[in-house]
Amino acid sequence: MPDQTEAQVVLRLDNITKTFGALTANDAVSLTLHKGEVIALLGENGAGKTTLMNILFGQYTADSGGVEVMGAPLPPGNPRAALDAGVGMVHQHFTLAENMTVLENVTLGTRPLFAPGLNRAAARARILRLAQDFKLSVDPDARIAALSVGERQRVEILKALYRDARILILDEPTAVLTPQETNDLFETLRTAVALGLSIIFISHKLHEVMAISDRVVILRHGKVVHEGAIGDTDRHDLAARMVGGEVSAPKAVPGVAGAPLLALRGVSTPDRGSAPGLKTLDFSLHAGQITGLAGVSGNGQSALADLVGGMTRPASGALVLNGADVHHWSPRTAVRAGIARIPEDRHKTGTIADFDLSENAILESYKDPPFSRHGWMNWRAARAFAQRIIDSYDVRCPGPGTRIRLLSGGNMQKLILGRVMEGAPQIILANQPVRGLDIGAVNYVHSQLLAARDRGAAVLLISEDLDEIMALSDVIHVISEGRLSPPFARGTMSPAQLGVWMAGHGFEETAHAS
Amino acid sequence: MRLEPVANPTALRTLAPPALAIAATVVIASLLAMLAGANPFSVLGLILKGAFGSKFALLETLNRATPLIFTGLAVAVAFRARLWNIGAEAQLYAGALVVAILGAGLLDWPAILLLPTMAILAMVAGAILLLIPALLKVRLGVDEVVTTLLINFIFLLFVSMLLEGPLKDPMGMGWPKSARLIDEARLPRLIEGLRLHWGFGLALISAVIVWVIGTRTTLGYEMRAVGLNRNAAEFAGIPVGRVLIKTALLSGGLAALAGFSEVAGLKGNLTLDLSPGFGYTGIIVAMLALLNPLGVVAAALFVAGIFVGADSMSRAVGVPTYLADIMLATALLLMVVAILLTRFRVVRE
């Protein structure tokens, strides 16, 4: 019988140490999880959270230390054993077969390969019962490809529950969710805990950590630096412990608007599949201002970012740069025109994974001296440039010869930031610049954008995070189905009022008025 | 067992797998030789002796390696940029055709002028042959694997038509072959008295040039960027289409040099059996070399050695020469596994 006051220990990590070459990812980490408890695992990028969870789940083998589940030691390096012991993991990047149904995905791998026939009726009944018990509304026969991100996450959780998981590990589960979906997820997690499950919740978002967890464990540089009940702490305290010092979000004082540096005059671009193009947009970016672009994802943000970044040209209308109409427009002319472009996806478009830091640092300027002269590369200059970025933007890496694949998201973003900001650009296109980054990196990126604005740059900030837009922007536009709202000055609109525009209301009236 | 990515492979880790792949190939070949009823050690010994064991054997191997270095380089250059050129065979014949037309008396120039002219025009012909699929790919998104592969058959039939018609040697007793080249159109020997022509020297020089292009030039940087991540290259402002076109021109030109070197250096005229699939074997050579231009030279020597050695072994003990094909296929497959093991490590559970 478990003690009444001291709940049963379901998981014990004991002195886990894991090194990758010279890097110590986990340094004697110990952690205890009790039945019916939610632990938040906090830490900056590269603090060792994901490594620790991968060891627990058997994807990595620890150099030393052990894992015990329900009092029994878990054989290292065996995901199957972890699954069988009741450990379920919901990854940040989903592992679902898109062309199969929810039912098929959930049952995948739970039966022998050549078992005759799948007892669909029983499986469906079980899924529906789990869905009801845990408040996870999902249609078992829907194809994954047709599901939203929030629904896919529910399928991932169902997968774990279907395998009788008693311990759920959720890696950054809210990074991809809307606020409404996050609330639904928390409802599910609370239900799960009430039913006796235990949860490890990995996140950077401190208000979520405060809302859902009982205890918090903070990792920094692979070591546990804090462990305690959530009631004994507050957001500010957690943030400080996480980065190992005081953190202050950069304070944005209103900027002084200067001349328009880049303007769109009645610009349209064609729709691309389900992604809307731009519908006769009029828009200008002013020196010394951050212009925020708010909107629900997939409403033309990419079309605008591609246009400003040189990836597409206006189908009609004019692009005006520093007062002159632009005729030739390509990524290269955009770079030449001094537009700093921070792309939405740093893995797919921002960097080349198998290039080292030097090669990535010069990706946009490789053709210009000193990196290239008469068709010959000057690698010494490229390395020096990369080293300068590493030093001044605090990119944590072994050196400029490291392949960028090995860097964390935050450090990758710092390299991109350094690459585009080195020439003191006058126009900055920041497309989701802090997506997936931890607080330290977020504040860093934001302070860089503010600093650029204060020296007179025009910044276009595109984000799906309304808090971020409202905190930084001097002027806010809302984009909906490729249409743009009039500019709203800082502080003139409440989130609710912007939400009305984001839902697509108010555009027709403006069209008539103008 | 599971695979875990290796962060920074050491030199040993990079070089050991290909060595092991070759060793395993030898073991498998021995088993097959035993199946054929021969003593495996004597078979392997004969292959080795037949490939490298005498001056004559060595020169034969070097001669055989020459076209493979060119086609291997052509494939390596293209594959690095993810341009899947399967058409080195046709590009080789394009180069050979130019030599057969110009070198049989059409241009009555001294060798010092004629040979470079033929080499350059051969390269142009090969480049144009790959330019067509490359343009179709860049402009219209047509898959170059299909187009380059099919052009091989079309072009070979075209060469066959010419050899049966306008290019047929009037003194050839009716055989489909072109007229013999004039002396000025023949590549001189690399070293006086040795049966090895300048094509081999040109192949070595080409390998060094391709290596320098890849590592030291702006074009090489562009080609690698396009090959590793086309999206990011395009976003950064690298003209992806133009880089692919340049890659195609270089690759086609290199493959055509194989044809130039075979006709002007070795054969002296053009026949339809000029190439026993050098273009396709070039793919094996490039893969064995891990797409490294200097590695291509080593891989071409290995492949040529197996072919030449197996021929000689077969004459001596009667094990079929197919053993050479099997050895190459095994080596290629094992190399693919070896590459995997270079990048990942096996973790036991």
From TrEMBL, chain A:
Keywords: ATP-binding, Cell membrane, Membrane, Nucleotide-binding, Repeat, Sugar transport, Translocase, Transport. It is found in: Cell membrane. It comes from the Bacteria. It is a peripheral membrane protein. CDD domains: ABC_Carb_Monos_I, ABC_Carb_Monos_II. Transmembrane segments: none annotated. Gene3D superfamilies: P-loop containing nucleotide triphosphate hydrolases. Signal peptide: none annotated. Residues 11-246, 262-506 form the ABC transporter domain. This is Sugar ABC transporter ATP-binding protein. It comes from Pelagivirga sediminicola.
TrEMBL record, chain B:
The chain crosses the membrane at residues 15-34, 65-83, 90-107, 113-136, 145-163, 196-214, 280-310, 322-341. Its main location: membrane. One of its GO terms (cellular component) is plasma membrane. The keyword Amino-acid biosynthesis does not apply. InterPro entries: ABC_transp_permease. It is found in: Cell membrane. Pfam families: BPD_transp_2 (PF02653). It is a multi-pass membrane protein. Keywords: Cell membrane, Membrane, Transmembrane, Transmembrane helix. The keyword Magnesium does not apply. GO terms for molecular function: transmembrane transporter activity. PANTHER family: ABC TRANSPORTER, PERMEASE PROTEIN, GUANOSINE ABC TRANSPORTER PERMEASE PROTEIN NUPP. This is ABC transporter permease. It comes from Pelagivirga sediminicola. The lineage of its organism: Bacteria, Pseudomonadati, Pseudomonadota, Alphaproteobacteria, Rhodobacterales.
